[in-house]
Each structure stands twice: as C-alpha cells, then as structure tokens.
Design a protein that fits this description.
The structure is a single chain. This protein has 2 domains: 156 residues, 2-Layer Sandwich (Heat Shock Protein 90); 81 residues, Helix Hairpins (Orthogonal Bundle), CATH 1.10.287. A 6-stranded mixed sheet has the order 1-7-8-6-5-3. A two-stranded antiparallel ribbon has the order 2-4. The chain contains 8 helices and 8 strands; from the N terminus they run βαααβααββαββααββ. It is globular. The longest helix is centred in the first third of the chain and has 33 residues. Helix 3 packs across helix 8 and helix 6 runs antiparallel to helix 8. The protein is α+β, with helices and mostly antiparallel strands.
C-alpha cells in the first residue's frame, strides 16, 4: 500500500506563512530567504507578462493583416496567461490572508458536487491546453455544513496541482466517500509521485514539487492545509515514486 502522510490537526498546526507579506509592507531590509522568495514571485510573474506583451504587440501592430487562425491563437494565448496570473495573485492574496489571520469562513449548506463542478470549470483552460480530463466517482453527502467558496478553493488548488504534475492527455480522478459524520475527497494524478521524505514537508509554504516541473509558487498546498483545518477537517497525501499521488481531505458533515 502507498505510504500515507496526514497533516496534524488544527491544534497541532504549524505557524502560517512566515513574515513575507508583513516584511514587504514594513520597509525593513529583506533577509536572504525572503529575497529569494521575492525573486521566485518575480520570475513566475515575468514569464506570463512577457508572453502577454508579445501577443498583444502582434495583435495591435498586425491586426488588419493577421489570418483569422493566428488571431484566434494569439487571443487564446492571452487568455491562458491571464488565467495563470489570476491564479497566481489569488495564491498570494490567500497566503497574505492566512498570515494576517484574516481568512474569513462563512458557513452555510454546501453542495459539494457543485463545488467540484465549479473547480473543474476554473481549471478548464489548463485542462484543455494539456488535453487532460477529470472523472468524478462516488456520491456527495445530502447535507454538508461548511463554506462553499473555501471548499471550491481547496478542490481547485488540488486539481491545479494534479494537472501540473500529470502528463498531457492524462485523466485526473476525484473520489468522494461519505460516512455519517464526514466526507472524504481524494484527488489522484498519475504523475511522477512524491518521495516519503518530501511528503513530510509538501504542505509547507513555498515548497515546490521535487520533480522540477516548472510553474507555481509552492503556496497551493499550504493554503489547502490551512483551509481544511479551518473547516474542521484533515488533509494528507498518499504516494509512491513513479506511481502518481493522491491528495485527500476530510470535512465534517456538520460543524460543531
């Protein structure tokens, strides 16, 4: 059976994203580690901006003479980069909210099936680009008391992570299991897998996958961990090298 690592409960939770947003606004000298993080953010933003600039320059200067197919291709490239930048800024905003203790939770009745559908729609542009599909198995609970926006955010982050580490044309699987007290959601990819040592820190902020796949700031799984714990659940990973990875989380059907 694949090794499994569960993140500690809320009471045992490690400190949130350390000092990054606070440091930026304080005017203090930036330590070497934070300087490296700033360089990472700048690098991740620079690439899509450069692509946007090139695509828009061509559209502006050659719009009247461009073939329809090339115009469509450039517009699609602009759209992909805007989607990517939006996800990037969303991760940074959530990380800053976690650090400041300002991540709001609004509890109501949740249709987790609708949350899954919305999450798939949010990552659809990336899935189409890579020729990937998502299959959903299992039955959602009749009633779940939680925050639908945060549940959608959790699933979106896990799907984005699965897409990044899966090969083109792959199928990503979502499995739902429901008991009287909890719902368990598992997101499985067929990527390179994660070593046991790396699984111990994969949910830490600014930690990126060990396989060297480009893209991402290493914040998505840290945000997932914080959100799941804020919602009263648990999160973990099951993986073996060369056999893909399954990231899972549980949520109580009713909050105490």
């Amino acid at each position: 059976m694949s090794p499994s690592v569960a993140v500690p409960s809320t009471a045992q939770r490690a400190a949130p994203v350390g000092g990054f947003a606070t440091l930026i606004g304080s005017g203090q000298a930036v330590p070497r580690k934070s300087s490296s993080l700033l360089a990472t953010v700048a690098h991740e933003i620079r690439n899509p901006l450069a692509s946007l600039r090139l695509s828009l320059d061509i559209l502006v200067s050659e719009f009247d003479t461009l073939p329809t197919e090339e115009t469509l291709s450039l517009v699609q490239r602009v759209h992909r980069n805007v989607v990517w930048l939006n996800a990037l800024t969303g991760s940074l905003t959530s990380a800053a909210a976690v650090e400041a203790g300002e991540l709001s939770i609004n509890t109501t009745t949740v249709d987790i099936g609708a949350c899954i559908d919305e999450a798939i729609e949010l990552v659809q542009a990336v899935l189409v680009l890579r020729g990937q599909t998502v299959r959903v198995y299992g039955t959602a609970p009749d009633a779940l008391q939680s925050d639908p926006a945060r549940v959608t955010q959790i699933i979106t982050n896990l799907l984005s992570n699965a897409s990044r580490y899966s090969v083109e044309g792959d199928t990503i699987e979502i499995h739902l299991t429901t008991t009287a007290k909890r719902v368990r959601v598992r997101v499985t990819d067929h990527g390179p897998g994660i070593s046991p040592d790396y699984q111990q820190r994969i949910f830490s902020a600014w930690v990126r996958g060990e396989s060297g796949v480009p893209g991402g700031l290493g914040l998505g799984l840290s945000i997932v961990q914080n959100l799941v714990q804020r919602l009263g659940g648990r999160v973990g990973v099951e993986s073996s090298l060369g056999q893909g990875a399954t990231f899972w989380f549980t949520l109580p059907t009713c909050l105490a």
